[in-house]
Automatic annotation (TrEMBL):
Name this protein carries in UniProt: STAS domain-containing protein
The organism of origin for this protein: Variovorax guangxiensis
InterPro entries: MlaB-like_STAS, MlaB_ABC_Transporter, STAS_dom, STAS_dom_sf
Classification via Pfam families: STAS_2
Domain called STAS: residue spans: 1-90
Length: 90
């Protein structure tokens, strides 16, 4: 499982994306799950990182889901019209 850090803003986004890309490349299996439960401080860059991770997973032929997405981040995703692209992990 891939894990987001507690803080993910514009400043942290490039490093976080590199970390997630490395994690995806090192994983096997048919699903990519990102654990966002530790994420407490974020801006819209967190959504950009999640969407890029979804694209990377899709390019690798994997499904994508997010675990522990906070209500605030889910609300932001809904506001942007992308909540459906960030399905909750079972």
């Amino acid at each position: 499982m891939l894990v987001l850090p507690p803080k993910l803003t514009h400043d942290e986004a490039p490093d976080c994306m590199r970390m997630l890309q490395q994690g995806l490349a090192g994983q096997s299996g048919s699903a990519a799950v990102v654990d966002a439960s530790a994420l407490v401080r974020f801006d819209s860059s967190a959504l950009a990182v999640l969407l890029e991770c979804r694209r990377e997973a899709s390019a690798l032929g994997r499904s994508f889901a997010v675990k522990g997405l906070s209500p605030r981040l889910r609300e932001l995703a809904s506001l942007y019209g992308i909540a459906g692209l960030l399905p909750a992990a079972p």
